[in-house]
Amino acid sequence: MTSIAIVGPGAIGGTLAAWLAQNADFDVSVCVRTPITDLVVETPEGVIKAAPTVLTGPSQGEPVDWVLVTTKAYSVDATAPWLKALCGPTTRVAIIQNGVEHVSLFAHLVPADRLVPVMINLPASRSAPGRIVQSRHGIIAVPAGQNGEALAELFAHTEIEAATHADFVSQLWVKLTGNCAAIVPALTLRATGPVWSHDMEAIVRALAEECAAVGRAEGAVVPQAVVDSTVENMRAMKEGAIAGSIHADRLAGNPMEIEARNGVIVRLGEKHGIATPANRMLVTLLAASGTPWRSEA
Ligand SMILES: NC(=O)C1=CN([C@@H]2O[C@H](COP(=O)(O)OP(=O)(O)OC[C@H]3O[C@@H](n4cnc5c(N)ncnc54)[C@H](OP(=O)(O)O)[C@@H]3O)[C@@H](O)[C@H]2O)C=CC1
Ligand SMILES: CC(C)(CO)C(=O)C(=O)O
Fold first, then answer.
1. Nearest protein Cα to ligand 1, atom 19
2. What pLDDT is recorded for position 273?
3. Ordered DSSP codes for 131-182
4. Given this model, what pLDDT does residue 289 score?
5. Ligand 2: does its nearest atom lie under 6 Å from the Cβ of 10?
6. Where does the record place the Ketopantoate reductase C-terminal domain (predicted)?
7. How far apart are the first and last CA of the chain?
8. What per-residue confidence (pLDDT) applies to 295?
9. Catalytic site residues?
């Protein structure tokens, strides 16, 4: 029996917990801030249900084989008491978040040889605690090597396609390039398609070009086609559509991952001497969007 604890069963964590709990060889628990009774997830393959063990505080935790951290990237320190309770000498910890800083954010909490960064491409939204819609097929990318292989193996019997990649850094930056333009609808609170113009295209393209340039300076391969498809996706965005979790978070008045998704482009751009004026401007504006919205928790 493989024991798996998921810290933060929101849209992503709840979806992954429900899929993993379908495997009778897994003992799945969820570590919550807001209690849940069970999980009901509408997936591309139909509705799946699960009733994992629910831990409401770190004092209820004990060492497990795997911890999957699926909190937002600004909640790192909030996971520390959970990690202390759930980690034994052989526990592996997967960080399943957006952004490119999985390892550096958690380096002070988890030994490097047991920290597994994960890129996830899986659109999911939560309507209530434990009630989630996974709207498209899920993809997970992990670094090549034993830890990555073991993480991918956990998802072998799920809908989610998990694979190892020798060039994992490129997986992260390609995803970030696709995601960084979502800061526009997060600011305007409107889909970009219906208000598309040459000026809007220039802004979206600049955001993605800057991200790709910084990613390349960090050693990633980010093909120009990724920039072009980011622009095309924003052009095609229909009225009423949500451009992912940062847009959904602003609409809900939640804290946003501004720093992990766009601030990082500015910071690492500075490190490499790459100007990132579009990201810098929109980060400043979104962070300044004021009450009742907060930028980071
Ligand atoms: N949603 C999506 O479609 C996608 C999201 N991602 C990324 O995945 C990561 C998770 O996002 P998402 O699932 O959308 O976020 P959610 O806000 O839906 O879920 C985060 C969860 O973390 C919980 N949490 C926060 N602090 C603690 C704590 N101290 N102890 C226990 N639980 C805690 C929250 O609790 P509470 O229930 O109280 O809110 C919530 O359940 C982010 O990095 C995001 O960018 C990546 C791809 C797609
Ligand atoms: C765009 C999407 C859904 C892709 O997985 C995402 O990363 C997010 O919502 O944050």
1. 10
2. 98
3. EEEE-S--EEEEESSHHHHHHHHHTTTSSSEEEEETTHHHHHHHHHHHHHTT
4. 87
5. no
6. 168-288
7. 36
8. 46
9. 175
Give the tokens for residue 50: 């699960």
Complex confidence, ipTM: 0.98
Q: What is the largest CA-CA distance in the chain?
A: 56
The span from the CA of 242 to the CA of 168, in Å, is 27
Which ligand is closest to the CA of 100, given by its number?
Answer: 1
Nearest ligand to the CA of 16 is: 1
The verdict on pTM exceeding 0.95 is: yes
75 CB within 6 A, ligand 1: yes
Taking residue 177's Cβ as centre, other Cβ atoms within 10 Å add up to 26
The rounded Å distance from CA 197 to ligand 1 centre is 33
Q: Does domain 2-166 have CATH number 2.60.40.200?
A: no
Two structure tokens written together for 255: 């804290």
Ligand 1 binding pocket includes 120 (Cβ within 6 Å): yes
The domain defined by 170-289 carries CATH number 3.40.50.620: no
Parts of the chain with a pLDDT under 70? 290-297
Sequence ranges of the domains in the chain: 2-166, 170-289
Residue 12: strand, helix, or coil: helix
Same fold yes or no, 2-166 and 170-289:
no
Single-letter amino acid code for the residue at 44? P
Q: How far is the CA of 244 from the centre of ligand 2 (A)?
A: 5
Contact criterion met (CB below 8 Å) for 220 and 174: yes
